[in-house]
Amino acid sequence: MDQILGNISLLIEFPIVNLKIFIDGIMIGALFVLVAYGLALVWGVMNVKNLAQGDFVISGGYVSWWLVQNGFPALLGVPVAFIVMWGIGWVVYKLVISRVIERDLFTSLLATFGLAIMMAQILNLLFGSDTQSVDLGYGTLHFFDDFIDVPIAKLIGVLMATALAAGVIIFMKSSRMGQAIRATAQDARAARVMGIDTEKVYAFTFSLNSAICGAAGAIIVMVWLVQPFYGISYSIRAFVIVTAAGLGNLPGVIAAGLGIGALEQYGAHIFGIGYQQAIAVLLLLMVLIFRLIQQKRNRQVLK
Amino acid sequence: MAKNKTILYASILAISFIAPFAFPAFGTQLATLWLMIIVALTWDMTGGQMGYNSLGNIFFYGTGMYVAAVIAIGLVYDVGDYTNAAGGGIYEFTDAQYFGGLFLGVFGAGVFCSITAVIIGYITFGLRGPYFAIGTLGVAIAAGELVSNWEWVGGGQGIALPVYPGDLDTGKIFFYFIFAAIGISVFVFVKWLYATRFGAAINAIRDDEEKADAMGIHTLRYKLITWAMAAFFVGMAGGISAFQLIHFEPLESAYQTINLGIFMVVCVLLGGKGTLWGPVIGAILFHLFKEVTWNFFLGWQWVALGALIVVTVVYFQDGVMGWLMHKRPEWFGIKVEAGAAGEAK
Amino acid sequence: MKKLTLLTGLIAGVAMLFSQAGIAASCGEIVIGSAISLTGKYATNGVHAQKGYEYAITKIKENGGVKVGGKCYNFKVIYYDDESKGDRGATLAERLISQDKVQFMLGPYSSGMTKAIAPVTEKYKIPMVEAEGASRSLFNKGYKYLFAVLSTSEQYLASAITLAGEKAKEQGKPVSSVKVAIAVENDPFSLDIRAGVSEDAAKAGMKVVIDEKLPRDLSDMSAILTKVKLLKPDVLIVSGHSKGAATAVRQISEQNIKVPMIAITHCEAADVTGKFGDAANDFLCSTQWSESLAYEDPLFGTASEYEMGFKNAYPEYKSKKVPYQTAQATAAVYVYKDAFERAGSLDKEKVRDAISKTDMQTFYGGIRFSAAGNNVAKPMVLRQIQNGKYNVVAPSAFASHKLNWPRN
Fold it and tell me: CATH classification of C155-287+381-398, choosing from 3.30.1120.10, 3.40.50.12160, 3.40.50.300, 3.40.50.2300?
């Protein structure tokens, strides 16, 4: 208890700490937003709750890492991971996802869980169980008398994530396919009646999600670390964000993503870093309970 | 037919009794098989029979482990001191203390888990379908993370229980029979339960909860009681596992969401959800699969497991029992009328 | 012509027999049992240890074997694969003792496996010399038949505390003014290390300003590093296997952490010099043994001669460093040789007593067992990464280089 009070007093004694924690938080939050957006896309369009989301991210990270090991420039890893994961996403869709779309929801959850286990293990077999990262070797920007540090690599990563997110959003708004996706999300039957090939839309959406995750992973390997079994951490956070923000609520997803990043860092500071993972999961439970209470008011249930 | 059934049950009992003596080298594996049967049958109570697919039943397993350990240790020593020593120090347990602690601990674990099931269920049963699954999974992960920070029960070190006093081989047989006893109890219990009105009520909740509610079934009460009963058995299984493993850690052994936590679901899916024998058959098949892949495909076993999950979920949703019911409906007393193909349920 | 060939062959054969005679022919056999991880998660290091055992046996054989009461003997080890599973290890230990009738055991790999097997060897009063289980909780259970040649876990980073104290004194400040920050992973091994550091800090009267446990699946230490920046400790301790080492080196350099002394474990396993280059400079890394240390003994030579000898016997290690797991395994067998010779008997109780009185200098370091069975004559060595190389800086008796302090 004294520890906690001591940590809180640090926040008050050194106000600049709040800014640092906040910045650290929203920088990693930006990556969460990206991953959550992909999850929301697949969830909204196909009602598939992809528990393997985090493992797609880590796979993308390994694609990029492997490229760098073989002499490619690191930044190129992001677009290449995007493309490679698109392909893998398409294959996964055809083999597995397409067969669970029309089934009950637990099926898709369990199928993607099985997928998550497979992917994590295959990565472990291919690349070993050590953590890996790519060192860009760029410097660090220092602010506020060397207290707040923003590694340039992190900044670039966050900017790339933002650019990608912006690109996807523009695509969804302006392109034919984007329209088709939104239509299918609204009402798949009606979309089919209108002549949209929903099968194509589903495949496209899932591949797009996989590609987004891949790019996120490539960024993460540059700025943080990847390890075959880290996927579940990202999956949990993506679920928290999507559950909190609701589907089709883009500003909500952004706010929730940045929020969870910041909350996690604050929680880790106050309660100790040992609780960081617990905080993310507790946030999930709190969001679920909150939603539950909301629905109860309307005499509905959280389906 | 009834005579056949009696012979069937009698022979299974006989095999169960002889097995550990016939195959002493596989003592631990046989005990684990019973553990799988227990967690599969209990999972199906809320899952296949009631329609609430929990991914967090492992919470009761882990909690059961800790409660049993705390009770057994706490009766003799100060728990905080004991866990502080992290497996070191000289802490003797007389035979009486060991076995007394074991039985009290295991029973206490069951009771404690039942109570927590009611408390947690009060919140989680407001969630439906996949949200219930995610919510329960969250509870299990959160518990694992929080317990690993709790110094009084050892934190990240886990707890090291005393070794079985006596010959290791006898110990194996001892644990086998406790697991078998719990397993047989669960089976007999649910066999009886599913034939009562209670069983019909929870099936009604699965088939259409709103209608069941409208018909006057107090759904929340049924949900809580079912989960509490399942938790009782899983908690006991966890408790006895603690003594069998001797040393357990919070995330690796107790709240193992990606291992036993998901195995129990796969067992039931493989064998057939919502049936009496489905979970049992599924547990046996899965256990065989796991032993074979773990011993002969070391390195690829998890990939094989993930593939098994995907294939079962996608292609083999009804499991073995479902497939059997489809192929041989007569065995189950289902009459398929001519022209009414594909409606055996 | 044929007769001549046959005769030559015969003479050659007999000559070979005679040349071997001094080595093998008239020597008896001492059988030792070992349940070790040849498969499973500990396999990599289990195999390193097994090779260490075998190399020792070969070297002893080449040098006349073990001389017990006027007769010579060679060691032979029966290995069983424990598959990195505790209960399997215990079962195999029982089998070795009850069925294969071994009277002596060599330890398995990892503290967890040793904890599983030790109760069995104690029950049957079988001496076990182990080289790969560092947990100190093995040594306060009153075991009489367990002996470990390696330094136990609480010593891993404790010498960093001592060093920090020395530096404070140099600056004219009291030792108790040193502020310590600890960040270890929340698993049994790392927590053992933390316990050692805490105890030493408490003994020196130092204040621990940060004491946190890193969760298992975490790849980001920013939250702790923020606190480090605020509270400005004099020494930072990080232990979290390879993942912890990699995260620490990267993020500490990114966030420009100016702590004057930082000590971590698993630097070599995480290959921090290879991955992070200059960012890894001035970090202190602890190790059980290094081939550059000034240890020596009549059988294996100096530490670096041991390394060369091992690499010749096992060419697949030529391009790598010989891991300390191998060196300590060799030392364990050496302890047995020395004990048998002093005991002058094959009786396990006499040998056990002889082991407990061991006091030898080896290529691996000094070996002398406390009453509890752990080695109190060999300190953990601290190496500092200087210009991409690991240089021994502590303890001062064995240091080859001066400590760079404070960190640049």
Answer: 3.40.50.2300
- Report the 10 Å Cβ neighbour count for A172: 18
Strand pairing report for C105-106 and C128-130: parallel
Q: What is the pLDDT of chain B when averaged over all its residues?
A: 89
Mean pLDDT of chain C: 87
Whether pLDDT at C21 is above 50 = no
CB C265 within 8 Å of CB C245: yes
Cα separation, C258 vs C384, whole angstroms: 16
Q: Which of B53, B258, B313 sits opposite A111 (nearest CB)?
A: B313
Percent helix, strand, coil in chain C, to 5, is 45, 20, 30
Phi-psi category of B319—alpha, beta or left, where left has phi over 0 and alpha has psi -120 to 50?
A: left
CA distances in angstroms from B317 to B262, B309, B340, listed in the order given: 16, 10, 22
Tokens standing for B38?
């227990």
User: B141: which chain A residues are within 8 Å (Cβ-Cβ)?
Assistant: 236, 277, 281
- Nearest CB neighbour to C137, from listed B86, B148, B169: B86
Residue-wise pLDDT for A164-210, tens only, equals 989 998 998 899 899 899 898 888 888 889 888 889 999 999 999 99
**HEC readout, A192-214:** HHCCCCHHHHHHHHHHHHHHHHH
Which residue among A116, A272, A285 places its CB closest to the CB of B139?
A285
- Neighbours of C (≥3 Cβ pairs closer than 8 A)? A, B
> For chains A and B, what is the number of CB pairs under 8 angstroms?
118
ipTM for the complex? Answer: 0.87
As its CATH architecture, domain C25-151+292-368 has 3-Layer(aba) Sandwich (3.40)
Count CB atoms within 10 A of the CB of residue A155: 15
Q: Count the alpha carbons within 13 Å of A125 in the hemisphere toward its beta carbon.
A: 14
- Dihedral through CA B301, CA B302, CA B306, CA B307, nearest 10? -30
Q: How many helices and strands in chain B, by DSSP H and E?
A: 14, 2
Overall fold of domain A2-297: ABC transporter involved in vitamin B12 uptake, BtuC (1.10.3470)
Provide the pLDDT confidence category of residue C222 given band limits of 50, 70 and 90: confident
Tell the residue number behind the tokens 């000590």, with chain if given: C263
For the ranges A69-73, A78-82, B292-296, B299-303, the one whose mean pLDDT is highest = A78-82
The answer to whether the CB atoms of B156 and C94 lie below 8 A apart is: no
Q: CA angle at residue C247 from C243 to C252, to 5 degrees?
A: 150
Residue C80, φ and ψ in degrees, nearest 5: -130, 145
Judged by CB atoms closer than 8 Å, whether chains meet at B138 and A288 is answered as yes
Query: Which residues of chain C have a CB within 8 Å of the CB of A7?
Result: 227
Closest-CA distance of chain B to residue A101, Å:
10
pLDDT over 70 for what percent of chain B?
Answer: 95
